[in-house]
# Entry
Amino acid sequence: RQLDGAALAAAGIDPGAVRISVGLEDPDDLVADLEQALDAL
# Structure
């Protein structure tokens, strides 16, 4: 489900925000995955 621009603005969410959802994983694995994703940008 995605919110439109008006709903995001009403919620105070900046259009440039990035949502990250993590679970019970090793912190080093999470950092490595995030670094890999950012390097791909």
